[in-house]
Design goal:
The chain has a single domain, classed as AhpD-like, CATH 1.20.1290.10. The protein has 160 residues and is mainly alpha-helical. The chain is built from 8 helices and no strands. This is Carboxymuconolactone decarboxylase family protein. InterPro entries: AhpD-like.
């Protein structure tokens, strides 16, 4: 489905702000907060974010790269995320972030004790809550953008 966006309007700004002014700006604030206030490392953050983007199919999310202090993940990182099980490019925290994002998105009921033992060996509870909030945000809003056809009409800022 493609939401009708008036000529000259930014699709995301229009849908998230003008169409649903009671909840859109609050959702946008949550979406921004996971980028502005995260304490997670860039690689684990991007591994989880990109894995959700790959599963959602959101074109905008797939093209985006988070920048911190002028740094972004290396070229080929997204390919490594798709191959998180076997890539040699990841440390255990990064691999677990991609795995968690995938399992959360596809079958959260299968997050078993064995997984949580591995996860808690590398992440503390605060980090797990933060990562979960990030993954939940990306899952919801990336799917919204993709399902409503916004992702194919958005233009990334050229400052990337």
């Amino acid at each position: 489905m493609n939401i009708d966006v008036p000529d000259g309007k930014d699709p995301i700004g229009y849908v998230w702000g003008e169409m649903v002014p009671g909840i859109g700006p609050a959702a946008a604030n949550l979406s921004l907060a996971v980028y502005e206030h995260t304490t997670l490392g860039l690689r684990e953050f991007e591994a989880a974010r990109l894995r959700v983007a790959q599963l959602n199919g959101c074109l905008f999310c797939l093209d985006w790269r988070t920048e911190r202090d002028g740094r972004k993940v290396e070229e080929g990182f997204a390919d490594a995320v798709a191959e998180w099980r076997t890539t040699g490019a990841f440390d255990e925290r990064t691999r677990l972030a991609a795995e968690y994002a995938e399992r959360y998105a596809l079958d959260h009921h299968a997050l078993d004790e064995e997984f949580w033992e591995r996860m808690t060996a590398h992440y503390d509870q605060r980090e797990i809550v933060e990562l979960t909030m990030c993954v939940g945000s990306w899952l919801a809003f990336g799917r919204l953008n993709h399902v409503l056809g916004l992702d194919s009409r958005c233009v990334l800022p050229r400052s990337r």
